[in-house]
Amino acid sequence: MRGERKDIITVSEAQLKIMPEMSELLHTRYRFLQMIDMLGPVGRRGLAENLSVGEREARKETDLLREQGLIIASHSGMRISESGKEVLEILKPLVYEWSGISVMEKQLTQKLCIQRVLIVDGDINETPSIKILLGLEAAKVLSKVAKEKEIIAVTGGSTLAAIADSVTPSDQPNNLTFIAARGGMGVDDMRLQANTIAATFAHNSGNAYRTLYLPEHLSETAYKAIIEEPMVKEMIDLYDRTDVVIHGIGSAIEMASRRNSTETEKSNLLEHGAVSEAFGYYFDESGKAVQRIQTVGIQREQVNRCKSIIAVAGGKNKAAAILSYFKQGANQTILVTDSAAAKEMLHLLK
Amino acid sequence: MRGERKDIITVSEAQLKIMPEMSELLHTRYRFLQMIDMLGPVGRRGLAENLSVGEREARKETDLLREQGLIIASHSGMRISESGKEVLEILKPLVYEWSGISVMEKQLTQKLCIQRVLIVDGDINETPSIKILLGLEAAKVLSKVAKEKEIIAVTGGSTLAAIADSVTPSDQPNNLTFIAARGGMGVDDMRLQANTIAATFAHNSGNAYRTLYLPEHLSETAYKAIIEEPMVKEMIDLYDRTDVVIHGIGSAIEMASRRNSTETEKSNLLEHGAVSEAFGYYFDESGKAVQRIQTVGIQREQVNRCKSIIAVAGGKNKAAAILSYFKQGANQTILVTDSAAAKEMLHLLK
DNA sequence: AAGTGCTGGGACAAAATTAGTCCCGTTAGT
DNA sequence: ACTAACGGGACTAATTTTGTCCCAGCACTT
Fold first, then answer.
1. Which of A153, B89, B266, B280 has fewest C-beta within 10 Å?
2. Residue B132 and residue B147: Cα distance in Å, rounded?
3. Contact A15/B65, CB-based, under 8 Å?
4. What pLDDT, in 10s, does the model give residues B236-255?
5. What pTM, to 2 d.p., does this model score?
């Protein structure tokens, strides 16, 4: 018909045309409602802090949400109502459309050449509480891809820990086995180690798990000796039969600092141009594995042989790392990230 | 599932829950856009007057609409853009839903026991320009119900005149014949007489018409004599073959005043409790025809025999009259009215 | 060819709304 | 019994919105 102009098709696009302020308004309110949902009974001040807004604005919005019956105020705080939950669920696609998350998801899926990109709204650094959302989203993906009696390998890190906390029994198929994708992580916080997280996954979903505690940075001889142990061999066998891997992606520098690497090791990484880290491998900008930590763990070939891979990482600072990691092909991967990382990735790609 | 609470289903309902101010906002903006569309190139001040808002508000809204590219400002005034028209069209159902017009349409259709009720937003008395909308709506209905070679009888009145103006050639089927539902209306404004309006309909749609000019208030003998005239007989024959009637509904008192009725006639009407008037018949509250003007015109039985009847009337003051008229069964009628009349009708029915 | 009545846009003070910052009585958890 | 956090009230400062002009420019009319 008409040549140049792209026709408006959907109602929501027309709404946005005639009421542009709705986009921001919806975004704000939705975040409030979502926060109240997540933080359970929460006070006005705590809410304001979590969303980085003034107390008064928090009050204004919560007043409105209460009047609309979307939240319920009590002495112990505000919590979401039944209709609030419905609204949250129904409006999600619209929020994603208007905030541009939908298009970002599509663009990144294409540019990273992976199966799917899922973005949760927010910045994991600015608003740590949205890690819960990342977790919920990842847990949802897991429940979709995992079938009965499958083996799920998980890695460590704070993000993965959050996901483990978000898993509920009803979500997941039965008879799964969770295993740590790698041995110990040295002096790291116990709660962030793969073994612990595998246990949490299993516990929260009512499934079994297998652990393997090993010291990190083994010498060549010690490594060769230990992989002959029956317990270890058994674990390596499990890696071969792993169906789903769910892992974080780390920034190489941050990772090296967290592990008590020596200065030589750090400068070694820098020399090789390491940008990202995932299950013990360090990758450079072009996606080449430039180094790996010598410990028992799932191998890259084993990962790539898996049915599904779920990668989870968020925050602007992770953007470069995520890009680097996906330079090596990982077609069957589903990435769960936040909008801050997504924006930065698209910015870096331009 | 849950017993009591009615579940939110649609996205638009959820939007309204979380952003209640959107309803009014959309309504306002939509009216602006609609007005600009109707009034063609129009200035800020004229627009403000038409919508009964301050000059500043008119300016604020038009500024926004212009920024959004929905309207185009030029030295001769503002007019709607292509995308503006699209938005107008796409958003109509939403406006109707949020302003409660949709539910009013359903309620009235049921309570009046007629085929369909179509409501245009506004008050025909406060905003005369929306008569154009009434007209457009009625013309749209006509184009849907009228088939080729059919005979359309029209009555008089300012509303019908507005409809006639809104008819365009492309709208209507070909080879229609428009006829006046009744002879002259005495001393009334020429432009509001059925004969003139039939001619306008025909002219604007590129069809034929037949007129019949007769004096009103004929004596019994004169009446009997005149209906023997070939020209008149021919017209009466047309009434028998009429397919579609499109008529206004008048308030009895106003009608009697407009026609130069004598005081006796007026008090006579009051005595009989006449409330409404349509094609020469006066009806009381219960829908009984209490009087009719003695002139050549379509008879009630002939009307009821028609395939489709389109009734058009708007304004709060017409509410009682419309209710009265539809008390006599008129199942195949489609009523086109405005929201002011609709509200009042529902109010009176409670 | 000058006049007149529109147009959109600029400017500015008054009015209304919103945001920031306290306080307070109450209540749940300790 | 105590404490910390809750929602809600109150009041001022800041911001936005609104009402009301004026203005230069363009299109009709005279």
1. B89
2. 24
3. no
4. 888 888 899 999 898 888 87
5. 0.82
